[in-house]
Amino acid sequence: MQARLTTGTAFGLHLTIWTLLVLMGVWLFAPIVEAVLTTEPIVVVDQVDAHWLHTHTTSWLTSGMRAISTLAALPAGLTMTSLLALILAARGCWYTLVKLVLVVPGSMLLNVLTKNVFDRPRPSVTDPPVRLSSYSFPSGHTAAATLFYGLLTVVALRHVRSWRGRLVIVAVSAVIVGLVGGTASTSGPII
């Protein structure tokens, strides 16, 4: 037990915290998966929300949401991941570089696999701003944003000592992920 709470090693407190966070994520995600698989009433709300948002959208809102969506689109994601990888390599942060290389592409592969397992079609609307043939669940953009900006947040938190600075970093990351997640409902993801 003491080894799991030791702060000096990678397999101590850090591993314990990450394990707890992963378990918490699975615990939070499981009810959503169950709702999707059993087509519970909350899932039907997707179609109603999609129609409402589609009928109340404006050109400036769609343009804005498309711009936000690019923060997790493939070209931007590859560019930012590559830039972060170069910075990490230049600074000799090999352990974090390995995490980046494993987490971002690995999670995207997992996302594609789970989309095909859940086989959930996208809500249909007339004349959508973006037409996609891939499945809707789980959201690839939201997953990419959560993992990339989450990892970027962890890296940034190591270099900022003040609580105010750390709070700003976490808040900005959460807002970006929230906005990217919201684009799936309003303008559709852009890949």
How is this structure best described in words?
72% of the residues lie in helices and 0% in strands. With 191 residues, it is an all-alpha fold. The chain has helices at 13-38, 41-55, 59-69, 74-90, 94-118, 140-159, 163-186. The chain has 2 domains: 1-38, no CATH class; 44-186, no CATH class.
Our count of domains comes out at 2
Biggest sheet descriptor = none
Distance between the termini: 46 Å
**Number of H/I helices:** 7
Share of β-strand residues: under 5%
**How many β-strand stretches?**
0
Tell me the Rg in angstroms. Answer: 19 Å
> Which structural class best describes the helix and strand composition?
mainly alpha
Short description:
The chain is about 70% helix and about 0% strand. The chain is mainly α and about 190 residues long. The longest helix has 26 residues.
